[in-house]
Structures are given as structure tokens and as C-alpha cells.
Amino acid sequence: MKIVVIGGSHYSRASTVKKLQRKGLEAEAVPTRASIENLITDYRDAGYAGQHLRRRLRYLGWLIHELWRKRRSQRSKFGDRS
């Protein structure tokens, strides 16, 4: 199991990681949430990555549909047919 140290100052993250590594644990420090996403993605297997991508694409399709629907309803309110 890998321990991820998040937040705090650079010094506190580094010292915490060093203490954990001295105890024989696998630890890594990451400063931001974006870094965590990259770290997690690196360790996922291909099947899970495909499932994750399908979920994101499904959400993107839903979002595009919602934006289109809202734009369409705004047009009908103002009688704009362009």
C-alpha cells in the first residue's frame, strides 16, 4: 500500500514522508489534487482506465445535451429561430 501525503508546506510534507519511509512504508508527497489524479491514474490497470474513460465520456455527452437543451429553451422564450 502506498501512503500519499497531501497539503501542508513543502517542508512538512517532506519531513512526514521521510519519517514514514524510515519506518519502512512506501510514501510519496503531492502538493495538489491534480497531482493526486496523475498519481492514481498511473497505478490503474487498463480495464479500470477504460471504465473511467467511458464514465467521463458519458458525463460529457450528458453535459453537451443539457447545454443544448438550455440554449434551445432560451431561444424559444425570445422567439429567436436562428
Brief rundown of the structure:
This protein is α+β, with helices and mostly antiparallel strands and 82 residues long. Helix content is 70%, strand content 12%. It folds into 2 domains: 1-43; 46-82.
Structure description:
With 82 residues, the protein is α+β, with helices and mostly antiparallel strands. The chain folds into two domains: 1-43; 46-82. The chain has three helices and two strands. It has helices spanning 10-22, 33-43, 46-78, and strands at 2-6, 26-30. It has a two-stranded parallel ribbon. It is elongated and about 70 Å long. The mean pLDDT is 75.
* Biggest sheet statistics: 2 strands, parallel
Shape assignment: elongated
**Strand element count:** 2
Gyration radius, in Å: 22 Å
Question: Which percent band covers the strand fraction?
Answer: 5-15%
Total count of domains: 2
Low-confidence stretches: none
Distance between the termini: 57 Å
Number of helices in the DSSP assignment = 3
- Mean of the pLDDT scores? 75
H-E string:
EHEHH
Strand order of the largest sheet: 1-2
**Structure class:** alpha+beta
> What helical percentage do the residues reach?
55-70%
